[in-house]
Structure formats: structure tokens, C-alpha cells
Prior knowledge:
Elements: E1 2-6, H1 13-24, E2 27-30, H2 31-41, H3 44-54, H4 61-72, E3 81-84, H5 90-102, E4 109-114, H6 117-125, E5 127-129, E6 136-138, H7 165-188, E7 192-196, H8 202-220
Helix pairs in contact: 1-8, 2-3, 4-5, 6-7
Bound molecules: zinc ion.
Zinc ion (ZN) binds near residues 130, 153 and 155.
Amino acid sequence: xxxxxxxxxxxxxxxxxxxxxxxxxxxxxxxxxxxxxxxxxxxxxxxxxxxxxxxxxxxxxxxxxxxxxxxxxxxxxxxxxxxxxxxxxxxxxxxxxxxxxxxxxxxxxxxxxxxxxxxxxxxxxxxxxxxxxxxxxxxxxxxxxxxxxxxxxxxxxxxxxxxxxxxxxxxxxxxxxxxxxxxxxxxxxxxxxxxxxxxxxxxxxxxxxxxxxxxxxxxxx
Length: 221
Ligand SMILES: [Zn+2]
């Protein structure tokens, strides 16, 4: 199975990815994580990436495509993969299609997560972390027993400085603008699965995706 997962900030991509990976026996590949690893290892590519990202610029299609191509040629993704963070543009999507076609492979599904903007905002703005043990909380959904204090060690919780409503709304807008053409691209290819991901439990979202995949597979037969 070859999948792509996409969705706005706080849509739960990172939480759903392991479920999908396990269900279909495929490897999750996040381009963001790949960038960070190259930088950490200080490879020639990593040094180039660091300059670009430090300037706050976007990594070019060309560089991203090259990196993804090299990754997808490895043996461990022979049976499939779950791409997160790629493609980000039509250029990248076309590159991926061409790359797969040359290998007689194709994408099975593009999973597009959606949820109410107000839930996204609460997930982001309500996010708290314990600086001592790293436990995550959300003051709207997974409150600590006592306000703003870690259940495990009593440490005062902290909030990331960019977890504000204004920044969150801006990120949602950027996502919509960037992703809308891609959604249309995959819809026309008939491989788009839109799935609501505003559930409290990640398992509910996963079940919904699985049902749609099964239903579609039956239609194909
Ligand atoms: Zn703690």
C-alpha cells in the first residue's frame, strides 16, 4: 500500500500515522523529519538545508524531490510507504507520479484529514507541556488534575510561544491555500479519501479511514 496523508495543523496526522503503518505493514516517511535528520548528521545536503531553513525559506521542489526519490529507492519501502509532508505542490505530485510510474508502481490513496477550525484552535492554543517530564496536556481536552500543573511531578506547565490563536489561524490559511490544488489533483485521479479527524479518540478517525479504504477496494473488484 502506498499512501499519502495530509491535513491542517493539529489534524492528528502524527497520531494516526502509526496506526496506518501497522495496519498496512508500511513505513511512515515524514519529509520534515528527513530534513531534520540530514541537518543533524551534517551531510552536504543537511548543510544546504540548514541555510535555507534558517533563512525561513521553503525548501525548493527540486531539492525535496531529489531527497524523496533517494528515500523511496531504498529496500525498506518496497512494500509501501506513508508519506507525510510531501507532496506540497503540483510539481512535486507530478514528480512522484512519474517516479512511481517508471517503477510500475502507483499511489493507492491520498488521505486528506479535515476538522472544524475551532477544534484545531483549541488543540493548538490549549496545548501544554511539562518541562520536567515532557508529558503533554490540553486544557480543553486532557486537563491536568490541578490547573496548569503536571499530574506526575507538580511542575508548572508551559505553553510554546507560537501556540497562539493568531499564528494557528495563519497556518490554517497557508495550509488551505497550498493544499487545495493538490486535493483537486488527487480527487480527479479518484484516489482521494477525505476523513473527518476531529474525534476525541484517534482510533475513531483510524476506523473511519479503514472503512473507506475497504469500501473503495470492494468497488474496484
Ligand atoms: Zn511532569
